[in-house]
């Protein structure tokens, strides 16, 4: 906890676009922050009365993904979307019941919830995406945001936990930003056949390949989930081949550091 001293902490909003496990971890984390930097307890700062808020259909921001034709899978996908909307409505009701954890402003630490906002520090700006699905549409693992750092003409993006990205609209957002350096999390291929089916793996690979092909990046770090699977190169082969054809520098984080990836042999 001492490492946050005299910092501004940009962290996920724990009050909305969040699932139960994220909320529990957030409550524990902010409780420790309050005790360490505010010499107070989180409960004394929480707001129990919250104004009702309407949330739009999350699919409204995903026109590309929603209009994509998956053939025989379309019917099953429509069923999953319907279940997802009901799940989302349950989340909204849950958010309204939870006490609100406010942004924190202590003498030696500030906590801000940055989703959809921009912050400037001299010639450097930080921009944060709106809350995005952690993987597929209506992923039960919650929401994340990606971060854009800009300094004069330089741009860096950390994609966060988009699982590929699986969702086409998120890939197009990254392409539109066209960063010089991109840290892109790959699909969780170690879960192929369990939590990741062939269609969504193909989506993730196609999206990553298009990102590699379209952006003018000097460097793309393609990592996060990938080294958990000994077959990660085989299962994302098109991405690596696209990089070779386009003469783009794509590598894992370990390779960027001049090391061999330590692969967890959990893939089947």
Description:
The chain has eight helices and twelve strands. It is 34% helix and 17% strand. With 268 residues, the protein is of the alpha/beta class. The chain folds into two domains: 2-111, no CATH class; 114-256, no CATH class. The relative contact order is 0.11. Strands 4-5-8-9-10-11-12 form a seven-stranded mixed sheet. Strands 1-3-2 form a three-stranded mixed sheet, covered by helices on one side. The protein has a two-stranded antiparallel sheet with strand order 6-7. It has helices at 20-38, 63-66, 74-97, 168-177, 198-214, 232-235, 237-246, 253-256, and strands at residues 7-10, 104-106, 109-112, 118-121, 124-128, 132-133, 143-144, 147-151, 154-158, 181-185, 219-223, 250-251.
Sequence-ordered SSE layout with sheet pairings:
Layout: E1 7-10, H1 20-38, H2 63-66, H3 74-97, E2 104-106, E3 109-112, E4 118-121, E5 124-128, E6 132-133, E7 143-144, E8 147-151, E9 154-158, H4 168-177, E10 181-185, H5 198-214, E11 219-223, H6 232-235, H7 237-246, E12 250-251, H8 253-256
Helix pairs in contact: 4-5, 5-7
């Amino acid at each position: 906890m001492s490492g946050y001293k005299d910092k501004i902490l940009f962290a996920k909003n724990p009050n909305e676009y969040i699932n139960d496990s994220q909320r529990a971890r957030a409550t524990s984390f902010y409780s420790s922050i309050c005790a360490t930097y505010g010499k107070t307890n989180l409960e004394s700062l929480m707001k129990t009365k919250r104004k009702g808020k309407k949330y739009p259909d999350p699919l409204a921001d995903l026109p590309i993904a929603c209009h994509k034709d998956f053939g025989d899978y379309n019917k099953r996908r429509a069923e999953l979307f319907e279940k997802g909307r009901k799940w989302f409505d349950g989340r909204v009701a849950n958010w309204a019941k939870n006490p609100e954890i406010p942004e924190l402003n202590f003498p030696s630490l500030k906590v801000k919830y940055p989703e959809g906002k921009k912050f400037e520090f001299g010639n450097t700006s930080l921009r944060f995406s709106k809350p995005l699905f952690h993987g597929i549409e209506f992923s039960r693992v919650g929401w994340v945001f990606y971060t854009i750092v800009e300094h004069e003409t330089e741009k860096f993006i950390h994609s966060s936990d988009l699982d590929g990205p699986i969702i086409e609209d998120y890939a197009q957002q990254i392409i539109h930003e066209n960063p010089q350096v991109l840290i892109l999390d790959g699909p969780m291929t170690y879960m192929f056949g369990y939590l990741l089916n062939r269609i969504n793996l193909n989506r993730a690979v196609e999206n990553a390949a298009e990102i590699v092909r379209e952006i003018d990046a000097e460097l793309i770090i393609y990592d996060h989930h990938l080294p958990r699977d000994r077959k990660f190169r085989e299962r994302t082969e098109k991405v690596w081949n696209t990089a070779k054809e386009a003469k783009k520098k794509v590598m894992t984080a370990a390779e960027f550091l001049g090391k061999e990836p330590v692969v967890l042999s959990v893939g089947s």
